[in-house]
Amino acid sequence: MIFSPRRAASIARKEARHIWRDPFTMTLALGLPTLMVMFFGYAIDFDVRDVSVEVFDHDGTRPSREVAAGFAASPYFQVRAGPVGGDPILALHRERAKAVVVIEPGFGRSVRGGEAASVQVLVDGADNAVAGVLSGYLEAMRPAVARRLGLPDPQAPARLESRFLFNPGLDSRWFVVPGLAVIVMGIIAVLLTALTVAKEWEVGSMELLLSTPVQPLEIVLGKLMPYMAMGVGALLFVYAAARLVFGVPFMGSHALFAVCALLYLAAMLSQGLVISVVTRQQQLAMQLALMTGLLPVQLLSGFVFPVQSMPAPFRLLAGILPARWFMDATRALFLKGSGSGEVARPMAALILLAAAFVTVAMRRFKKDLEP
Amino acid sequence: MNPTLLGFLRKELAQAMRDPRMRVAIFIIPLVQLTIFGLALSTEVRRVSLAAAVRPDDPAGRRLLERAYASGWFIPARTAGNDPFLWVRSGSAEAVLVMPPRGLTAALLKGDARVQALIDAANATRARGIDTYLRAVLAETVRVGRGPPPAFRFSARLLYNPEMQTSLFLVPGVMCLILGISTLILTSMAMARERELGTFETLISAPVAPWEIVLGKTFPYFLIGMAEVPLVLSVAYFFFGVPLRGPLWQLALGSAVFVACQVAVGFLVSSVARSQQQAMMGGFIVLFPGIQLSGIIFPVENMPAAIAWVGYLNPFFYFVHLNRQVMLRGGDLGVFLKNLLPLTALGFAAAAVALWRFRRTLD
Asked: Using H for helix, E for strand and C for coil, what is the string for B52-121?
C-alpha cells in the first residue's frame, strides 16, 4: 500500500472538526497569543523607571538638600523624604522604597571644606530588576549632582559613544514580541500533540484506527496537520502584531524565516508525538509535556535569560532545545537582517534536532505497532 | 476522622502514586527542574564577546581591552574579516570597540578621546548593561595615574543579596512555579477523569455527601502539594544557600494558602471541563499567563492600571512576592498580610465558583 494523501486529509478533517468544536482548544490557540501580545505590548516594561527612593537627610544643610533635589530632578527616581528619626533599613524591609539615600551629618561641612564627600545609597538587593540598573543610574547622575554642589568634576579624558545596532531606540518590545512567536508556537505544538495522540492510545481508538486500511504514517500526519496549521496561524498572528502594531522591523529574508519556522514546528510536533507514544496515558503525557515543554521553552530558550550567560554545561543543555535555535534565528532575521550564512548555525541545529525527533517518534511509533 | 473521607484519601493517593512514572513526575522532576533553572539562569550580563581593532602603537587602547577582559564581564570574540558591523551582525561579537583614528593613546594626549562602541542591541536590556560596563571600564582605564578621584561620589550597598547572585533572587520564585503547576494540574485532572470515565455518576449515586466528594477529591492533592514544599525548600536552602531570614511559620502558612488556592483553581477548571484533555488545557490556559506575569520572568510592578487588574488575579504574583519577602528580606508582617489576604480571597472565590458549578451538575 502506498501513502495516500486523501486518507491523511480525511483524518486531518476529522481532527480539525474536533478542535473546532472544543472551546478549550480554540481558547488556547486564539486567546493565549492575543492575551500575551497585549500584555507584552502594553503592560510589561523592562525599563526601570520611577524607582521609589526615600531620602534620610541627617545633615540638613544646603548641600545635603541639593543632593535630594538632584534625585528629584532625575527622571529615574520617585523621591520622598524618609520619616524623621526613622530607620532607613525599615523602608526597604517594609517595601516602602527600593532604595534609601542616607546623608550623614557633616556632609555639608565636607563639601564646603572641599574634601571628598560621599552619600550612602542602600539598595533593595532582593529585587534584581532594580538592583541591576541602579548603579548605572547613580553613575549617570553623579556629574549633575557634583555641579549642583559646586564641586569640581573634571571632564573624563575619554568618552564612550555607544551605537546600539539593530534596535537604536532600545525598545524592549522589539526583543520580546518576536520571541513570543517562538514560545506560543512551541507550546501549542508540544502540548496539543502530546495530549491528543495520548488520548487516542488511552481510549484505545488508536488500535482501532490502525486496524483500518489507513496507514500509520497517514494517521500521524493527518492528526498533526491541524496542529501544524494552528502553529503557523499563531506565528502569522504574532508576526502581524509585531510588524503592524509594535513597528518591529523585519530585515531578513522571509523565505529563510519560513524554512526555520517549519523545521521548528516539525521538531516540536515530533517531540509531542514521542511523549504521547512513550506514555500512552493523558495524565502522564501532560506532566511530561509541561515539564519538557512549558518551563524549559520559556526559561532556557534565551527568551529573556540570555543563553550566553549560562554556565557551559547548561549552554549545551539549552542546545538540545529547538526553541533556543529558533529564537536565535527569529531575532537575527527580524532585527539584524542576517543572511543565510549567518543563520546557518541555528538552521543546521534545527535540521539536526528535527530529524532526530522525527526519527525517534517514527521508531517508537513503529515499534508499538508490532505485536 | 470521617471514614468516607479516609477512604477517599487512600484511594486518591494510591491512584496518583501507583504509577512509578507518576511518582517521578510529581517528586523528582520538580527538584531536577529547580536545580537546573537555579544553576543555569542568570540576569547578570556575563560572557559578553568583545572585539576591538587596536593599532600596535596604541598601548592605552590595548590596556582598555585587557582591562575589559580582566573585569570578568567580557570574553574575547573570535572574529573574521575586518568589518566591525559584520562581526556584530553575524553574532561573533556582541560589542566592538572602535578606537579613535590615530589610536587611544594619541587621542588622550590631544585631550579629546572618543571611543566608539558598537553594541548588539537585539536584546535591549543586555545592551544597556554592556554599555554601562564598557563605560565603567573606560573610566577606570583612563583614570589610572591621572589626578585625584572625583570629589563627590555615591557609595551604593546592596542589602539582602550583596553579591547580586541571581540564584538568590530566582530560586524562591521558581520554587513557587513548580509547586503551583503540579498542584493545579493534578487536581483538575482527578475530577475530570471521573467525569470522563463515567464514574462520577456512580459517585453521586453512592451514599456519600456532596461535601465529602468535594473534600475527598481535593484534599489529597493539597497533601501532595504540601509534601512538595519541604522538598523544594531544602533544595533552595541547602543547595542554593538561599537564606531563610523570616519566620518559618510565615512560609508554612503562605505555602499552605497558596497550595490550597491552586487546588481550588484546579477544582474550578475541572468543574468547567468535560474531559481530561479539556481539564489539562484549561489548566494550561490559567498557568501560562500566571507564570509569565508572576514577576519571575518580567518585572510586573509598573503595569498600567488598565491591565494591572489581570495581574491581581494571579496567585503566583502574591506567593512569589511573599516568598521573596520571607526568605530574603526577613518577613515583614505588613507585607506578609498584604500578599496573604488577596491569596486567601482568590482561593475562596475560586472555591465558591467551583462549588456553585459543582452543585449545578449534581441537580
From this structure: EECCCCCHHHHHHHHHHHHCCCEEECCCCCCCHHHHHHCCCCCEEEECCCCCHHHHHHHCCEEEEEEEEC
Among B280, B291, B309, the residue to mutate for chain A (most A Cβ within 10 A): B280
Cα(B61)–Cα(A319) distance, integer angstroms: 36
Contacts of B235 (CB under 8 A, 6+ apart): B31, B34, B35, B38, B171
Q: What is the DSSP letter of A171?
A: -
Q: What is the pLDDT of residue A330?
A: 94
What is the pLDDT at residue B224?
92
**Eight-class DSSP state of A297:** H
Q: Which three cell numbers stand for residue B102?
A: 590615530
Residue B145 has pLDDT above 70, yes or no: no
* Bridge partner residues of A101 (DSSP): A55, A121
Positions in chain A short of pLDDT 50: 371
> Looking at residue A326, what is its pLDDT?
95
pTM of the predicted structure, to 2 decimals = 0.89
Q: A336 with A350: CB under 8 angstroms? A: no
Q: Which DSSP string corresponds to A228-274?
A: HHHHHHHHHHHHHIIIIIS-----S-HHHHHHHHHHHHHHHHHHHHH
Residue A141 has which C-alpha cell?
Answer: 547622575
Reply yes or no on whether the pLDDT at B225 is more than 70: yes
Distance separating alpha carbons of residues A220 and B33, to the nearest angstrom: 31
Strands B95-98 and B113-120: antiparallel
Rounded mean pLDDT of B318-332?
A: 92
Q: Would you call B39 and A314 a contact, using CB atoms and an 8 Å cutoff?
A: yes
A81 by Cβ neighbours in 10 Å (0-12 / 13-18 / 19+) ranks as exposed
Q: Which residue in chain A has the smallest CA separation from B150?
A: A153
- From A109's Cα to the closest Cα of chain B, the distance in A is 13
- Interval B235-258: pLDDT, tens: 999 999 999 999 999 999 999 999
User: In this structure, what C-alpha cell is assigned to residue A360?
Assistant: 525517534
